[in-house]
C-alpha cells in the first residue's frame, strides 16, 4: 500500500488520477501541430517527456510511503523481482529459489550486477537493506510489510512491547555468500510473496555508502546509489527530475529509452497546453477536457478503471467529537458520490462504499471479492445524513461544528475539495468546513501528525490480495492515522495474515474484517479510481501495474514521428 498522490499525469495517474476540472481556456484538445502519425521504426531520440503534479518526497527506500517516491525507486533500483504487466519477473534473483520442505526457507541465487559506483551488489546489501528497514534508529516508515509477509521475527522486532524489539539482527535474512541470499519465514509464503519482493522496502542498500553520506544521504540525486534500469541523473527540487538509462543494468537490452524527463506542473491547464504543443507525451484529462479530446483526438484518448481507492479519514485521535459514529456517518452520508464521479471527475472512476476494490482479486471460488462481500458502507443519502447529524448533536450536546479538511494542492484537486466541503455544509446545517490544501510532502507530514479533522486520502495496493487494503487499519499500524481501534478487526487481520495455508478460511476472515470495519465507519469511502488520458501514438510499451509501482517505463520506447 502506498499513499497516493492526486494528479493528472498519465504515467503516475494510474495510481492516483484525480482528474479534476479547470475552467476551459477555450478551444479543443487538438494538438497544435500535426504529429499524430508514427512509423514502426524506433525513433533515434529515445526521450520521453512527462509531467507530474508533485515533487519527490524522498529517495531513501527506508522512508518511502507514497506513490511518487515508490515509482522513482522502482525505476532506479533492482531487487529480487520486478513487476511488469501485473506479473513479477526475476530481476537480481536468477530464478526460482530453493525452497525447504516446510516451505519456510527460501534460498535465492543472485546474478551479477553493479551499483552505479561500479561496486558489485551482494547478498549482504540485501541483508543490510532489510535490516535497516527494521532498525528503529533508521525510523523506517513502511516496515510492516515484513511482518505482513511473515519474515521471521519481523513482527517481534517491530513491536515496542516485545523483548526482541529493535533487534534487527534477528530478522530472517542471511547472506550465505556474496551471491546467495537466504530468507526465512514464520509460515509458508503467501501467494503474493514474490511480487512483494519488488517493492522499495525490499531493495538492497549499501552500508558503507549510506554511512559515508551521513545526513546528506538521499538528499540529492548524487547522494544515492542506483542499480536498476535507470539512474536519477538530476533532481531540481520543486521543478522536476531526469532519468538516464543505466548502461550497467543486467537487462539493459530491454530498456530502449535513453532519457525520461519529469517536470512538476501543478496547474492542469498548463499540462494540457504542454501536451498540445508536444512538450510532454501524455497527460491525464480532467472532466472538462475529456469530451473535446475524444472529438478531436479520438485515437490518443484511453480510459481505464484501476485499483486505488479514495476516501475521507476521520481523526478520532485528537478530535473527540469524531469518536461519535453518528457524526462520522453523517459526514459520509452527506456526500453524493455519483455526482462526484460523474460531474467532477468524469474520468471512469466509480462511486464506492467499500475498502477492497472491485475487479482486483478473486477468491478460492473464483468470485471477485466484491461479489463475495456485496455489502458496503452507508452510501450518500442527504436525508440519512441529516438524521445521523441530529443524533450526533444530541449525543454530543452540540449545535454546530467546524471541520479542518486536509487535502492536496494543485488545481486538479481544488474542485474535488470544494465539492466535498460544499456537500458537507449543504446537507449538515450548522457544520462549517475549512479546506487546508497542502503540497504533497507537507500533506503527508500533517497527516502523520494528525493535523486535521477530516482528510482526503488514497491508497495504492502493494500486492494482489485484500490484505493490502486491510492491514493498514489495525490499531498498531502507524499508516492508519485515524486513531480508530477495534480488537475484533485486529484479531481477524492477524489470523488472516498468519493463515496462509487454508486460503478459504483466510478469505472468509478478510471478508469479516472488512464488514467489521464497515460497521465502525472509521473512514468514508468515496470512489475507486479511474482515469482518462491522452497519449501520443508514438509512445509504446508503458506498463501500468494494478499494484506495486504504479508506472513502469523500463521497457517503453518511442517510434519515429
Could you describe the 3D structure shown?
Strand 5 (98-99) and strand 6 form a beta hairpin. 29% of the residues lie in helices and 20% in strands. The chain is of the alpha+beta class and 561 residues long. The chain has 18 helices and 20 strands. InterPro entries: Peptide/Ni-bd (IPR030678), SBP_5 (IPR039424), SBP_5_dom (IPR000914). Belongs to the bacterial solute-binding protein 5 family. Residues 1-23 form the signal peptide. Pfam families: SBP_bac_5.
Outline, from the CA principal axes?
Answer: globular
Radius of gyration, CA atoms, in whole angstroms: 23 Å
Largest sheet: 8 strands, mixed
Number of DSSP helical runs: 18
* Approximate strand percentage: 15-25%
In oligomeric terms, what are we looking at?
Answer: single chain
* Tally of DSSP β-strands: 20
Proportion in helices? 25-40%
Overall pLDDT metric: 90
Which structural class do the helices and strands define?
alpha+beta
Give a quick summary of the entry:
29% of the residues lie in helices and 20% in strands. The chain is of the alpha+beta class and 561 residues long.
Sequence-ordered SSE layout with sheet pairings:
Elements: E1 2-3, H1 10-16, E2 47-52, H2 67-76, E3 81-84, E4 87-90, E5 98-99, E6 105-109, H3 123-132, H4 144-148, H5 154-158, E7 173-177, E8 180-184, H6 193-196, H7 207-213, E9 230-236, E10 240-245, E11 259-264, H8 268-276, E12 282-284, H9 287-296, E13 301-314, H10 325-333, H11 337-345, E14 350-351, H12 369-372, H13 382-396, E15 401-408, H14 411-427, E16 431-438, H15 440-448, E17 454-460, H16 467-470, H17 487-498, H18 503-520, E18 523-535, E19 539-540, E20 557-558
Parallel strand pairs: 2-11, 15-16, 15-17
Antiparallel strand pairs: 1-17, 3-4, 5-6, 6-8, 7-8, 9-10, 10-11, 12-18, 13-17, 13-18, 14-18, 19-20
Pfam families: SBP_bac_5
GO molecular function: peptide transmembrane transporter activity
Domain Solute-binding protein family: 89-479
Amino acid at each position: 500500500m502506498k499513499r497516493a498522490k492526486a494528479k493528472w499525469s498519465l504515467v503516475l495517474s494510474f495510481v492516483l488520477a484525480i482528474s479534476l476540472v479547470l475552467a476551459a481556456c477555450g478551444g479543443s484538445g487538438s494538438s497544435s501541430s500535426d504529429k499524430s502519425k508514427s512509423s514502426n521504426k524506433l525513433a533515434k531520440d529515445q526521450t520521453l517527456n512527462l509531467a507530474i503534479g508533485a515533487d519527490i518526497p524522498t529517495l531513501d527506500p527506508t522512508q518511502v510511503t507514497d506513490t511518487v517516491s515508490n515509482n522513482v525507486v522502482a525505476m532506479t533500483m533492482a531487487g529480487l523481482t520486478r513487476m511488469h504487466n501485473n506479473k513479477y519477473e526475476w530481476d537480481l534473483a536468477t530464478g526460482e529459489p530453493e525452497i525447504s520442505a516446510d516451505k519456510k526457507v527460501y534460498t535465492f541465487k543472485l546474478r551479477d550486477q553493479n551499483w552505479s559506483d561500479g561496486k558489485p551488489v551482494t547478498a549482504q546489501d540485501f541483508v543490510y537493506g532489510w535490516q535497516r528497514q527494521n532498525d528503529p534508529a533508521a525510523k523506517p516508515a513502511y516496515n510492516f510489510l515484513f511482518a505482513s509477509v511473515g519474515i521471521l521475527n519481523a513482527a517481534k522486532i517491530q513491536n515496542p512491547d516485545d523483548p526482541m524489539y529493535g533487534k534487527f539482527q534477528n530478522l530472517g535474512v542471511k547472506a550465505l555468500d556474496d551471491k546467495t541470499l537466504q530468507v526465512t519465514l514464520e509460515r509458508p509464503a503467501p501467494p503474493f510473496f514474490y511480487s512483494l519482493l519488488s517493492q522499495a522496502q525490499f531493495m538492497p542498500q549499501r552500508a558503507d555508502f549510506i554511512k559515508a553520506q551521513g545526513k546528506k544521504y538521499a538528499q540529492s540525486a548524487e547522494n544515492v546509489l542506483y542499480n536498476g534500469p535507470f539512474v536519477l541523473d538530476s533532481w531540481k527540487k520543486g521543478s522536476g527530475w531526469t532519468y538516464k538509462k543505466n548502461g550497467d543494468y543486467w537487462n539493459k537490452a530491454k530498456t530502449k529509452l535513453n532519457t525520461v524527463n519529469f517536470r512538476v506542473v501543478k496547474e492542469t491547464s498548463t499540462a494540457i497546453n504542454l501536451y498540445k504543443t508536444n512538450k510532454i507525451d501524455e497527460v491525464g484529462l480532467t472532466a472538462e477536457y475529456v469530451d473535446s479530446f475524444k472529438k478531436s483526438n479520438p485515437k490518443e484518448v484511453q480510459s481505464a478503471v484501476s485499483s486505488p481507492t479514495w476516501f475521507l479519514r476521520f481523526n478520532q485521535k485528537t478530535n473527540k467529537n469524531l469518536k461519535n459514529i453518528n457524526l462520522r456517518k453523517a459526514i459520509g452520508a452527506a456526500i453524493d458520490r455519483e455526482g462526484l464521479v460523474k460531474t467532477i471527475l468524469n474520468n471512469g472512476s466509480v462511486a464506492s462504499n467499500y475498502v477492497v476494490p472491485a475487479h482486483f482479486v478473486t477468491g478460492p471460488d473464483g468470485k471477485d471479492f466484491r461479489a463475495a462481500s456485496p455489502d458496503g458502507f452507508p452510501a450518500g443519502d442527504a436525508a440519512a445524513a441529516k438524521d445521523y447529524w441530529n443524533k450526533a448533536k444530541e449525543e454530543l450536546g452540540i449545535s454546530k461544528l467546524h471541520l479542518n479538511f486536509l487535502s492536496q494542492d494543485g488545481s486538479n484537486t481544488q474542485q474535488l475539495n470544494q465539492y466535498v466541503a460544499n456537500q458537507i455544509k449543504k446537507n449538515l446545517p450548522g457544520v462549517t468546513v475549512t479546506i487546508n490544501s497542502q503540497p504533497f510532502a507537507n500533506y503527508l507530514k500533517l497527516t502523520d501528525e494528525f493535523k486535521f479533522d477530516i482528510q482526503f486520502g488514497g491508497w495504492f495496493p502493494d500486492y494482489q490480495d485484500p490484505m493490502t487494503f486491510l492491514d493498514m487499519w489495525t490499531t498498531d499500524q502507524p499508516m492508519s492515522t485515524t486513531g480508530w481501534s477495534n480488537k475484533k478487526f485486529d484479531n481477524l487481520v492477524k489470523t488472516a495474515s498468519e493463515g496462509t495455508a487454508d486460503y478459504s478460511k483466510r478469505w472468509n476472515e478478510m471478508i469479516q474484517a472488512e464488514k467489521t470495519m464497515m460497521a465502525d465507519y472509521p473512514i468514508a469511502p468515496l470512489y475507486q479510481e479511474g482515469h482518462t488520458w491522452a497519449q501520443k501514438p508514438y509512445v509504446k510499451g508503458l506498463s501500468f501495474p494494478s499494484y506495486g509501482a504504479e508506472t513502469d517505463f523500463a521497457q517503453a520506447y518511442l517510434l519515429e514521428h
